[in-house]
Amino acid sequence: MKDSDFFDAREGGADPAFISQAAQDSAHALVDRGRQSDDPEITERFVRLAETEGIEAIAELWQDSPPRSLAGSLWRIFAVRSAVQKDPERMAEYFRLGRGNTTTAAIAGVPEPPDSDEMLHLADRVLAGMYVGEIDVAFDRAAAFCRVIARGQTLANGTDSTDLITAATDLEASAQAYRAGRLD
Predict the structure, then answer these.
(1) What is the spatial distance between Cα 113 and Cα 118, in angstroms, rounded to a whole number?
(2) What are the φ and ψ backbone dihedral angles of 87, each rounded to 5 degrees?
(3) Average pLDDT in the chain
(4) pLDDT recorded at residue 61
(5) Shortest CA distance to 29 belongs to which of 72, 70, 73?
(6) Which pLDDT score is estimated for 37?
(7) % of the chain exceeding 70 in pLDDT
(8) In a 3-state reduction of DSSP, which class is residue 106?
């Protein structure tokens, strides 16, 4: 048995409240800064942050954020975009299979059938919606994107895509919270 002095002398990890606050602050700073410009080149730079600036470390902070928060929603959008970038051909196939439902209305303008380059472009447009247009609409588009891919993945593999469905539900809830002025 160890006495309390043993445990008192051990350092713990970072304060979870500090990590949570850092995640929220970084998400708000990133979105607010990106929305301050009408320049399409600036928007493109923010969309490309993950490739050029190593935003993965910040995204890791967002990963543990409440799912129905700006940071948690950004993490979900970045995660889906990353999945598209890793295997655009497969994601295009899932999208083609899953597109036969009404949720795709929120993703208008996608050619039928989309190829891998178009899937990459679509994933970028979903993320760019955080910087141009309305944030709640961007969340709804990202949710619709997740639902279409989840349906296609289920049809292709015969298994449920609960992670994507959960992400879609959380993004829809974030859109509603944003509209109500209650999004963290």
Answers:
(1) 9
(2) -150, 70
(3) 82
(4) 78
(5) 70
(6) 80
(7) 82
(8) helix
Q: Any idea of the CA torsion for 95, 96, 100, 106, to the nearest 10 degrees?
A: 40
Name the residue among 36, 121, 108, 48 with its Cα closest to residue 78: 48
Average pLDDT, integer, range 58-77: 86
For 120-160, write each residue's pLDDT tens digit.
Answer: 888 888 888 888 888 999 899 899 989 999 999 999 998 88
Which token pair is 4? 């309390």
Q: Any alpha helices (H) in 9-132, and if so which ranges?
A: 16-35, 40-47, 49-52, 56-63, 70-86, 88-98, 116-128
In this structure, what is the dihedral angle of CA atoms 177, 152, 65, 107, given to the nearest 10 degrees? -40
pLDDT at 130 (0 to 100): 81
Calculate what percentage of the chain has a pLDDT beyond 90.
29
Angular region, 110: left φ>0, alpha ψ -120 to 50, beta rest: beta
Verdict on whether the full-model pTM lies above 0.85: no
Amino acid at 46: F
Pick the closest to residue 136 from 167, 175, 78, 171 (CA basis): 175
| Whole-angstrom distance, CA of residue 22 vs CA of residue 118 | 34
Specify the residue for token string 């655009």: 88
Report the run of H or E that residue 154 belongs to, with start and end. helix 135-157
